[in-house]
Each structure stands twice: as structure tokens, then as C-alpha cells.
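Session log. Operator J.P. requested a structure for one protein chain; no other inputs attached. Running the standard single-chain path with C-alpha cell output.
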Amino acid sequence: MENSPVFARVLIDWQRVHGRRDLPWQDWSRQRRDPYRIWLAEIMLQQTRVATVAPYYERFLARFPDVAALAAAPVGDVMTLWSGLGYYARARNLHQCARRIVEEHGGVFPRKVEAIAHLPGIGPSTAAAIAAFAYGTRAAILDGNVKRVLCRRFGIAGFPGSKQVENQLWVLARSLLPDQDVDIYTQALMDLGATVCVRKRPACEHCPVCSECVARCERRVHELPEPRPRQPLPRRTTSVLLLLHGNSILLEQRPPAGIWGGLLALPEVDVATAPLAAQVAEKYDCAVESVELLAPLRHRFTHFQLEMRPLLCRVVPAGRQVGEDRFRWLALQEADKAALPAPVRKLLRQLATKTV
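Structure written below.
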């Protein structure tokens, strides 16, 4: 294995010529040192593709140009702008983090990696990336792309998400840090993993360290990094209510924590416990005129697969406001602009087409 300074220097030189320069958060002349913009991009890019993130990032900056604006906004506004980006805990943590920065740090993003890592929704790798890009701090990152680059280049066996392999990768990542140009080196690792050393069909011929890559030399590029040990995803089933009155739909505000926390979603019902009409009358103060079972919709989460069984109920509200803090009638056209989980948005769009 080549020594650490050589590895870092090769990547830094490669980044200056071949690295990405056209991303919205990579305005190197102006935005590069703004920790707020860097933090926002890093959070959005967690488990989400660049092409998906870009328009969300620009809309967020237009609505929340700085950390004070984000902290002062209602969490519902944040969730609405985030709707469709997935992994909604990131949005709740983003809002909480902004408030903490304003309340505990005077609106100034902390400089030390340890202080950044203690903020909501920020782990050690994200904290290191923010510190490196914003302040030039000498700190190692270890996101998914970087794990893949290191596993292939240095022949690290085992699933990189396991504690033992991850600890090994952290030691390696820290040992490779250059003394200077840490921000450029960090971006090089990210760009190399995102554009060249990709998961499928890596462009090894364009890699600056391909001649020393263990995986390439041993013809193990498609074996490393090793995948997560396969386990069948648990399946869950739930019946959801599409309570339709004219052109309006009843939506329920989800609790702050848990699946789809803070978003508007469809009420769930246990059809085995009591007659549907009785449950709708008791919980939602509506008389059921008709019921139609729609095609099930499957949605995959990280740890399980959810099957939603929609029940379209045309109803007549009795007039009494039931749980107005949790339930909201919205016109189908308005609902599409609300903070909805992706599968709920899909169902409502199908319903809007059906009722036209």
C-alpha cells in the first residue's frame, strides 16, 4: 500500500481537474465556506441521490436563506418543503438543529467536530464533512461512497456496516488524512465514490488510484464492499381510509416521532375489530354512504415493507368537529401541496384522477 501522503495527494490533484463543480451547493467562490449551506446539503444527501436533492436544496434556500430563518419557521412548513424527499426524521432533526444553533450557539454554527456531532441529526461523518468544508478542519469522513472506495482500494473484506469492519475503516480513513487541503481531499473522496467508483459498473479506467487498487488487481471489484447479509424484509399490512366528502379528503396529522412523523397521512383502521361504518361514525363523525376496496399499494422502508389496503369511503360529515388538532379536511387539489408521505401522495393523485 502506498503511504498516506501519496494517496491523498493523488486524489487532491485528481479533484482539481476532474471533480464535480456544477452542483448547487458547490459554488466554490461564494458558498463554499457557509456552514449553513454545507450542513443543509449534507443532510439532504444522506441516502438520497444528487439529482433528487438539487431542486429541494434550492427551494429550501429560497424559503430559509439562513439558520435563523429555518429556526423561526413552523415545523409544518419545513415538513411541507421536505415532502417527497423521504427519511422524514432528517427534516425534523434539521428544524431542531437550527433551533439549537440559534438558542445555544447564538445562531453561529459551531466549529469543533465534537460540538457539531452533538447537534440533532448529525453523526460523526457528517460533522467531519461540515467542519472540513466550512473550516478546513482535519477530520475524516466515512459515508457510503467513501466506504466503497476504501474497501476496494485497500481490499477490506466484510460488510462495512458491521461494527468491526466500520471501526477498521475509521482507523484507515484517519490515517489517510493529508496535513493540508483537507476540504479538497474530502470532496475528492466523495466525488470518486459518486462518479467513478460507483456500486455497479465502476469506471476503473478513470480512477486515479486504479493501479494500486486491491479489488481491481485481484478481480474482486464486484465483490467489494461485501453486501449486508441477506435477511427477508418483514411485511406489515394496514388498512387506510380515504374518507371522501365531495372533493375533500380527511387527513390525519401523524405524531412527531415514528413513521412519517409530523406529516399528514390517511387514517388507519382495524377492519377486524368492528364494522367499518361504526368505526367511521365514532372516530370521524361521518356517515358512510359507500365503500370501495382499492388496489393495495406497497411501500418499502429500510427495515420492512408496508402493504397499504385503501378503503375509499364516500361519507357525509355530521358537523361535529372531531379532533380538529389532528384531523383536517382538504380539497384534493390542496392536499397534493401538503406535507404527505410519497405513497399517500400517490394514492391521492390516483383518487383525484378517478373523481374528475
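Operator note: Residues 19 and 205 are 16 Å apart (CA to CA).
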